[in-house]
Specification:
The protein is mostly helical. The chain contains seven helices and three strands, in the order αααβααββαα. α2 packs across α6, α3 crosses α6 and α6 packs across α7.
């Protein structure tokens, strides 16, 4: 009985299968982004910061649907490399993060590589399947974000 349930987990578990898909996509993007010197998760953080301009870590975590502690841990290497700046906000308990000029340059260098990775995913999935997947993922975030 338990063995069958565990087999069901491995084959049907939403979390398990989304994480596998996430890993394979992340690995592809990491490979393509390698010449830029940044990883896929770093690229997405830099892109989010480019859009946000200057934002509190708490707000950025909310926007990215990330745990604040995990986000802070992921921001540290970017800060060490001088790609982002983390400063106290008006309230000393708040930390505000922004992209530096070096971070903007790194993002600009990585963008054409990101376009290659994105095109590869769309090519492999097909435009219709990719659009459906993208739409369903956005819906999933919206529907389950507050659950």
């Amino acid at each position: 009985m338990q063995d069958q349930l565990i087999k069901t987990v491995v084959s049907d578990c939403t979390c398990f299968n989304l994480r596998k898909a996430s890993r394979v996509i992340t690995q592809l993007f990491d490979r393509v982004l390698q010449p830029s010197g940044i990883l896929a998760n770093q690229f997405t953080l830099l892109a989010a910061l480019s859009v946000a301009k200057s934002v509190s870590i708490t707000r950025l975590a909310q926007e990215l649907v990330m745990d604040r502690t995990t986000l802070t841990r992921n921001l540290k290497p970017l800060e060490r490399e001088g790609l982002i700046c983390i400063e106290p906000g008006q309230d000393q308990r708040v930390r505000v993060v922004s992209l530096t000029q070096k971070g903007q340059a790194a993002l600009a260098k990585a963008l054409p590589l990101w376009q290659q990775a994105q095109a590869k995913v769309i090519e492999e999935l097909g435009q219709d399947r990719w659009q459906t997947l993208s739409s369903h993922l956005s819906d999933t975030v919206s529907l389950l974000r507050e659950s």
